[in-house]
Structures
1.
Amino acid sequence: IFVPFGGFMALFIIGIVYWMSRERLSPKAELDLAIRNREFIVHYQPIVELETGICFGAEALVRWLRPDGTLVRPDLFIPIAEETGLIMPITNQVVEIVIAELKSLLVNERTLHIAINLCAEDITTGRILDFLDGKLQSTGIHREQIWLEITERGLVDIDAARVTLRRARQAGHAVAIDDFGTGYSSLQYLQGLPIDALKIDKSFVDTIGKDSATSSVILHIITMSQELGLLSTAEGVETEDQAAFLRARGVNFAQGWLFSRPLPAKEFIGFHKNNKETFGAAREIVTSAD
Ligand code: C2E
Ligand code: MG
Ligand code: MG
Ligand code: MG
């Protein structure tokens, strides 16, 4: 009778020790494990053309699906990944997931685009471009269908960034400045950068129709983007009034809960199908490479 009991005890203790060791891992070690176990998933938030309502594509947004079933938002782990030098393998996994999940959609729908978020280290080293190049080869997906989003915070080494962005555009990718207006970049800064588009941060979209002082800031951003010949996307659009304001002022694209929340791949494919039946196919948008 003691032998099986001993066996149970041993298993129980091993279980407890395993559980405690997992709980006590540092954030870096936990993320490291998540990368090795490929615990990341991607949701796609549709981006629509404001003038026509046509789906232009989607932004790929990473989430961490932990083994216990909890879904961790990127805001909670991307900064840790950046600080601990683990961002590049995460960006790479996002690229692999996007290709695996959306390859046939992108090959069949040439006017659809997917935007991928890059961090400072991706932009400084430029290695993401080699990775993308390798992964896109023989998929039939065009380089033009993959947009790259970079934040102003990502431009820590501006000379290295310039090299990477130029290479990205020569390969055919379009480059958008994400969360525009929340960083420090001045007009002067932007003028020298090889980019195609600005994403107007949600905080400015939120001011539409509210506070006239701050909503004049968004007008300046729109004008500036047009004067620089850039495409513009408004993020975090939640109301029809906001969409009407942005459309009337010539903002090209929008994303936000008004159109759709971020969706799993299958649901995004369904969204696109519906959208195409309602509004028709998108026209080709050519961005200006160097
Ligand atoms: P972001 O690129 O500015 O992404 C937009 C965020 O706004 C998303 O949050 C999205 O779910 C949320 N959002 C969109 N529309 C609305 C709306 O109408 N109302 C509200 N309240 N929120 C809206 P999410 O997915 O939590 O992403 C947060 C940030 O994490 C992203 O900001 C991006 O900077 C970063 N991120 C996400 N995925 C990746 C990734 O794969 N790599 C990197 N480096 N960063 C990522
Ligand atoms: Mg983004
Ligand atoms: Mg934002
Ligand atoms: Mg953004």
2.
Amino acid sequence: MISIRNVSKWYGDFQVLTDCTTEVRKGEVVVVCGPSGSGKSTLIKCVNALEPFQQGDIEVDGTSLAAPKTDLPKLRARVGMVFQHFELFPHLTVTENLTLAQIKVLGRGKAEATEKGLALLDRVGLAAHAHKHPGQLSGGQQQRVAIARALAMDPVVMLFDEPTSALDPEMVNEVLDVMVQLAQEGMTMMCVTHEMGFARKVADRVIFMDRGNIVEDCATEAFFGDIAARCERARQFLAKIL
Ligand code: ADP
Ligand code: MG
């Protein structure tokens, strides 16, 4: 579903990604972890064409991002993205947040978009909050709305960038539960997260990044089960967070 091949990226003189190669197969859940500043957010933004890259290519569901003729807005509409800071529209109701892109980007009618949005809101356990504004919801609730909003676009893959890092601890699980459910339903997911419990439970593979390089890319069982076989940086990282 996602194929990242030899991707390098610079911000000016600073090389932020170095020859990154990996893939995410249909239905697979891949967790990306690594120290702050290692390039995790940049890599995931490249997959969604929110950031350009200078070398290599990324294909999403067979569409090359580097090919000059690719319709990037169209591709972006098929890739669900959930950020650390929920990025809901504060002046719109929850329902309006859930329907706006369906109507503007996918051209769905208001009734269809609302029906779809409300069904997804129910799925994340927030059916009673449809008429509220984001500011009236807790962080965990806002993040669940953000997930529902992404799902409303019928994405072929869901990207998450530290979706629980900005939440109070007691709200982390309500968001992770939704993500676990999605994973178990077969959604293809690439998740930047340091929630290793989540990784162990649902990830098929774990990627570890360090200074712009993918230095580990292995099955979840091997990543956690055979720590001695991991590289020095990954071992140090795991020692700190496990
Ligand atoms: P991570 O998500 O792993 O913490 P990022 O992908 O956000 O890492 O950032 C990787 C590196 O790129 C960091 O050193 C960061 O300071 C740098 N960086 C990120 N965004 C920009 C930008 N827009 N311009 C210049 N440098 C950036
Ligand atoms: Mg980041």
3.
Amino acid sequence: IPVDPFVLTVFGATGDLARRKLLPALFHRDLAGQLPQRASIIGASRRVMSRGQFLDFARQALVDHVPATELSGPELQRFLDRLNYVVLDAEGDEGWRDLAELVAPQSDLIHVHYLATAPSLFQPICERLSRHGMAAGNARLVVEKPIGKNLESARLVNAAIGAVFPEDRVYRIDHYLGKETVQNLMALRFANALFEPLWNSGHIDHVQITVAESLGVEERAGYYDTAGAMRDMVQNHLLQLLCLVAMEPPASLDADAVRDEKLKVLRALKPIDELNAGQLTVRGQYRAGASRGGAVPGYLEELGSTDSATETFVAVKAEVANWRWASVPFYLRTGKRLASRVSEIVIGFRPVPHSMFMPAAGPVSPNRLVVRLQPDEGVKLWLMIKDPGPGGIRLSLVPLDMSFAEAFNVRNPDAYERLLLDVVRGNQTLFMRRDEVEAAWRWVDPILEAWRATSERPKPYTAGTWGPSAAIALIERDGRTWLDDG
Ligand code: BG6
């Protein structure tokens, strides 16, 4: 079903996000017949180029990021015909009148302003949108992380945005919320009667959330060195996943109903600060090693520096201090240049209270539910079953395995496809509200401060491994292990 007609302006249109994600996502939705005839896209950037040159840039972006079979039909030209380009200075006057003139004849449509720019440009762009009459009731603002680099700066960014756009027209993207399996977590929890009665400290022993990447920081080292894994991944993606696991059932899928529940989780996170950061957190930085069979450089070499204390790996033992989750650890871990690219959530259930099978049948392992985000999205429920055969009873832990690719046989849409159309639909459920972002910083800030206050460096780990040995010790101290294989 096509969405309502819209004009989408991408600020920073010649950047990496537009090239790798936004243009391919819009093209895929066009291919699926979801863009109405009058939908158009305006690229805006400082880079001087003609419309023709921008079209070439967009065509190349699609060639690079869309399978060739999808580019062979007339849809490619139809998509390119929707594009326009404006040279614009986000902090000056150039180009703003041109942009206003381009969108003015479309005043009856939904206007989406997508800021795929450095965060320092959010305020100047918002001010100019307002000054040139492009922030009125039909205009929506989309911003990408990072929203600030601590609570104080996030508040300033949010205030600058809020001075022009009311909260119900602001869409803060966390692209993890657009991932299919992440939404499936809500379906799994709230559309099945099976799990919710067990979803608490009475039956769940612990939760693991892993977002492991095999790539290093590569050409993003400049940005990354000012952020680190805590700001880049934990403050947003991992905490959002934690919220979806831990939140109370919202009364509806209404944006504020869901976001209210996530906010309560963020506010219930037990503080980690100077006193306990040493026991509850581990940070690491990769050294040269091997990845997928080839030698890869260390972080400092990629950065071109001999000195940086920026973490490329974080493990945290978090706790949600409320009635449902009291004393259930949430082990979070994320890092670059780890052994493989795996993102998954593991719900570890408590063992049975008594085993009648011991000792001959072997030990009874606790059940676990694994929601795998990537690669090969799916859900696995590990159960104890009897090994087949006429002998005595022997038990094995075996997965009930549901792979989305096999079950549905469809292409898994990129998170941005879903999220971009949700903006046009006016659905904020999968976007972060201002108070959520700020609550996440309120928990992260004291950890960052504790790290800054110590003279300890991030622990080195070899590229291509599962991170520093201290991260393994963090969970093994509690008699548990990281589950790397689902
Ligand atoms: C981004 C981070 O938000 O998420 C990157 O800035 C990271 O550092 C990326 O690589 C991971 O996203 P995905 O969808 O590839 O898991």
4.
Amino acid sequence: MEELKTRIKEVGTVLPGNVLKVDAFLNHQIDAGLMQRIGQAFAARFADAGITKVWTVESSGIAPAVMTGLALGVPVIFARKHKSLTLNEGRYTAEVYSYTKQVANKITIAQKYVAPDDKVLIIDDFLANGQAVSGLLAIAKQAGVTVAGAGIVIEKTFQPGRSALEKQGIPVVSLAKIKSLANGQVEFAEED
Ligand code: G4P
Ligand code: NA
Ligand code: NA
């Protein structure tokens, strides 16, 4: 997506540890217009997949997920992060390990918002190690629902997320693919 890549070039900064900071439009301040066009792009890519729900994980996945749900005309669920093991009655849960923050979180989705015939599109802001999406896949498996694919705003192709998801049979669509953040420079890969 050209507009997204242009914005990354203009306002993205590279932090130590191969982290791209895009607080200007995605992770803190949100450019709602850009998010809407991102949602429309995901909706177009999954238009024929029969999606009934969009799933993401709080917090940074919510903005692009909501815009995707709006474009597809389906509800959006954000899995909640819980540090506690308790109070999980009536909820599906999975463990997500964050390599960047070095903490493990439980993510949960209430069973009452999941229907057995759901066809889920997973949306997230970044794909790095694939832990967040894998957690949602574990929940989908528990719930017995189908996952049609994963839509990612920014994929870091030098990290193992995509191969982890494709091994589980999940098609991945990324709107910007970054192959390197070495030397503080953003280098894009070819798009899907
Ligand atoms: P994974 O979800 O692909 O496994 O990523 P990983 O465990 O490596 O990353 C943990 C958190 O860091 C995730 O956010 C992920 O979206 C984010 N992240 C990974 N790489 C980058 C990056 O280059 N730039 C930025 N800005 N974020 C990155 P989270 O813990 O779920 O937090 P939240 O922001 O959604 O609340
Ligand atoms: Na994030
Ligand atoms: Na995220």
